[in-house]
Amino acid sequence: MSLVINEVLSAPRQLWRRFTDWLHARMPKGLYARALLIVILPVVLLQSAVAYVFMERHWEVVTYRLSAGVARQVAAVVDIYRTFPDDAEHSQLRRIAALDLNMELSLLPHEALPAPVTKKSLFALLDKALNRELSRKLLQPYWINTSLPGNLIEIRVALDDATLRMLVTRTHAYASNSYIFFMWMAIASIIILAIATSFLRNQIKPILRLANAAEEFGKGRDVQFSPRGAREVRQAGNAFLEMKRRVERAIEQRTTMLNGVSHDLRTIITRFKLSLALMGESNEAREARKDVDEMERMVEAYLAFARGDGGEATAPTDIRALLEELKADSERRGVAVAMMVDGDPVIPARPAAIKRLLANLVGNAQRYGQKLEFSIVNDGENMIVRIDDDGPGIPVERREDAFRPFYRLDESRNQDNGNSGLGLAIARDIARSHGGEITLDRSPLGGLRATVTLPL
């Protein structure tokens, strides 16, 4: 029994879930548009419902009262016609109808009335009201047509010797003021929209400024930000500034510590070099010098990775100029290099960090390729730098592992052969500190393609 109940209840739940998913997919995604919708939609709907109920009731009452007035006029015309049979031409009756009642009167020969109009009309309320009022005022058979062209109503009353045909303007019996309702709704909605837009724009601006400040700080750029707006927004802004101060203080402390460690390690390495220089030339001394040089390179790589160049200021950086230097260095090593530039190659970044990023990627390509291609594309939103080589490449399943610190590829391509295994890790860390990313793919030259994407 419970299974049957669950199955019966599951169908409405699924329909409701589909409806909510469909509605969610079509709702605006921005906070400004959503806030406008939340503020305006309930007000407009409530106002529409209230105005519609009021106008509909008012419209109906006025229509019945106007129809009652027309019915009284028709009854008066019928009474006058029957009271003064001596007026053969009934000219006085037509004059009274035209001048005093705003009604066009004509006498038709006695004949059967047309069949009632059964076609649905736009003036159903008028049909209902006029029929009810005429039935109260007249004892004679009558027929009405409320859908005549020219905004007219035709009323026929069958008498013993003739048929009275009367044409009345529809506005005499019908309160056609729906345009007032639409004008009221349009004007009220425009006023509400203008007020809500003005207030919400001022409330959204501080949130957008906070988001932009956080984005700029995430890209490693200088941020000038002061909290504004509502209390909650200012509270979030103050929290962001406090976080920014803590991060900067941590970076400063780390930089100071690493500078001290670097100085101490370099001092010891310098002592080793001096001691080896005094030992003279021997096989043991030469091997020791190689070990010391290797240790110095590894220490520099470790410190560079740990430091992350966080203390460097942002400045306009010419990517083409940096790659030109690396291109010249590659050509001196006997590696052929082609370069293509599309768009403005200048980007706000930390110059030394970007140079190290590109140098690591180009050095990796130099080590395993005999032909390189550099390309720079500015698409208006991002600076895209591609470095292609014709080396052995990296298998697809191991490309992400190549970015891991201290990870060494044991196959034919080892991006840091004889070194620390930090080249690509440092490059990706620098790219991400600028809000960008590095990806590896297969190069059209047959080797590896490194793609650097940096936001403008």
TrEMBL record:
Entry keyword annotation includes Cell division: no
Pfam families: HATPase_c (PF02518)
One GO CC annotation: plasma membrane
Protein name: histidine kinase
Keywords assigned: ATP-binding, Cell inner membrane, Cell membrane, Kinase, Membrane, Nucleotide-binding, Phosphoprotein, Transferase, Transmembrane, Transmembrane helix, Two-component regulatory system
Membrane topology per record: Multi-pass membrane protein
Residue ranges occupied by any HAMP domain in the UniProt entry: 201-252
SUPFAM superfamilies in the cross-refs: ATPase domain of HSP90 chaperone/DNA topoisomerase II/histidine kinase (SSF55874), Homodimeric domain of signal transducing histidine kinase (SSF47384)
Keyword Cell membrane included in the entry's annotation: yes
Transmembrane segments: 31-55, 179-200
Entry's EC annotation: 2.7.13.3
Domain Histidine kinase, residue spans: 260-456
Gene source species: Methylocystis echinoides
GO MF annotations in UniProt: ATP binding; phosphorelay sensor kinase activity
Compartment(s) where it occurs, according to its Swiss-Prot or TrEMBL record: Cell inner membrane
Catalysis: reaction(s): ATP + protein L-histidine = ADP + protein N-phospho-L-histidine
